[in-house]
């Protein structure tokens, strides 16, 4: 899709935003979380605008966002026709923020299920301000933690991180955290090279940042398992993730370019 030509028709909200930080909230069936999360971000009184990328959630998430738009004038909503994956949602979010008249200086991505604490946004942005291309809200560095994940989920996440570390070697502890702050300079450089459909976007972005010699840093954060709504991590999402890792491995061995 060309965001440049179709912007005004496909995005709901006032495109005349000019905040320092754009927050991307990808949503699929988050009626139980989205309003409280938006209220909390707004109440932080940071210089932010919010972009919700919703995949026509059948539970009516987008209607709740529309209600929030009446309360706050810094919320954009992009509704896609069907569930199309977290990776493409974030990539579309990057394209939208790049195409507005006054793009933000930083983009924060976070889950809309309350696993990520909005109060950590300002810390992520502060670290980015001192010159990082990408700041990861890290569960696995000193001071970071995970609350209420079952042992299987912990093992899957740990294995994914060990494999990613072997493939990329960016000298960080958490490659798969979705709570991050990107500098706009990095977003500008990598957006057209992103191909991830789902959760592998988290690794692909670190890989592209490292390749382009951007500084990737971590700041500790606590991840709390969602209390409301269902996980979207299905076997299809895991398959997409594994095939990305396999592709990286083949690339490393020089079998594909
Ligand atoms: N637009 C869009 N958002 C998605 C999609 N899949 C997941 N999300 C959103 O991305 C965020 C992370 O998804 P989660 O279901 O929480 O996935 P997770 O954090 O890996 O799994 P949990 O263990 O349940 O927390 C949430 O805000 C979801 O609503 C998708 O296909 N499209
Ligand atoms: Mg989650």
Description:
There is one protein chain. Helices cover 41% and strands 18% of the residues. It is of the alpha/beta class and 257 residues long. The protein has one domain: Spore Coat Polysaccharide Biosynthesis Protein SpsA, Chain A, CATH 3.90.550.10. The strands form two sheets. The protein has an eight-stranded mixed sheet, sandwiched between helices. Helix 3 links the parallel strand 3 and strand 4 (75-79). Helix 2 (34-43) runs parallel beside helix 3. The chain is globular, with a radius of gyration of 17 Å. The relative contact order is 0.16. The structure holds guanosine-5'-triphosphate and magnesium ion. Residues 111, 113, 115, 226 line the site of magnesium ion (MG). Magnesium ion (MG) binds next to loops.
Topology of this structure?
Layout: H1 3-10, E1 11-12, E2 21-27, H2 34-43, E3 48-54, H3 61-71, E4 75-79, H4 86-99, E5 106-109, H5 121-129, E6 134-138, E7 145-147, H6 151-168, E8 180-183, H7 184-190, H8 201-211, E9 216-220, E10 222-224, H9 235-252
Parallel strand pairs: 2-3, 2-5, 3-4, 6-9, 7-10
Antiparallel strand pairs: 1-4, 5-8, 6-8
Bound molecules: guanosine-5'-triphosphate (GTP) and magnesium ion.
Looking at this protein, list some descriptive labels.
two-stranded parallel sheet, 9 helices, 8-stranded mixed sheet, 257 residues, 10 strands, binds magnesium ion, 41% helix, binds guanosine-5'-triphosphate, Spore Coat Polysaccharide Biosynthesis Protein SpsA, Chain A, alpha/beta
């Amino acid at each position: 899709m060309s965001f440049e030509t179709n912007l005004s028709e496909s995005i709901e909200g006032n495109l005349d935003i000019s905040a320092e930080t754009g927050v991307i909230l990808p949503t699929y069936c988050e009626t139980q979380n989205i309003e409280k999360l938006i209220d909390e971000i707004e109440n932080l009184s940071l210089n932010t605008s919010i972009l919700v990328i919703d995949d026509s959630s059948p539970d009516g998430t987008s209607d709740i966002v529309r209600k929030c738009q009446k309360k706050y004038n810094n919320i954009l909503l992009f509704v896609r026709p069907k569930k199309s994956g977290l990776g493409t949602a974030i990539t579309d979010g990057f394209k939208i923020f790049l195409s507005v008249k006054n793009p933000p200086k930083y983009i924060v991505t976070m889950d809309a299920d309350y696993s990520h604490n909005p109060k950590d946004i300002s810390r992520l942005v502060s670290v980015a301000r001192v010159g990082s291309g990408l700041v990861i809200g890290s569960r696995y560095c000193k001071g970071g933690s995970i609350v209420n994940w079952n042992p299987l989920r912990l093992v899957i996440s740990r294995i994914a991180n060990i494999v990613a570390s072997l493939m990329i070697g960016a000298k960080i502890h958490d490659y798969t955290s979705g709570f991050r702050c990107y500098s706009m300079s990095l977003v500008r450089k990598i957006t057209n090279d992103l191909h991830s459909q789902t959760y592998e976007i988290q690794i692909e972005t670190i890989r592209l940042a490292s390749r382009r010699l951007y500084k990737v840093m971590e700041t500790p954060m606590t991840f709390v398992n969602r209390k409301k709504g269902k996980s979207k991590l299905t076997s299809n999402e895991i398959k997409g993730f594994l095939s990305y890792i396999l592709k990286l491995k083949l690339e490393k061995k020089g079998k594909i370019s």
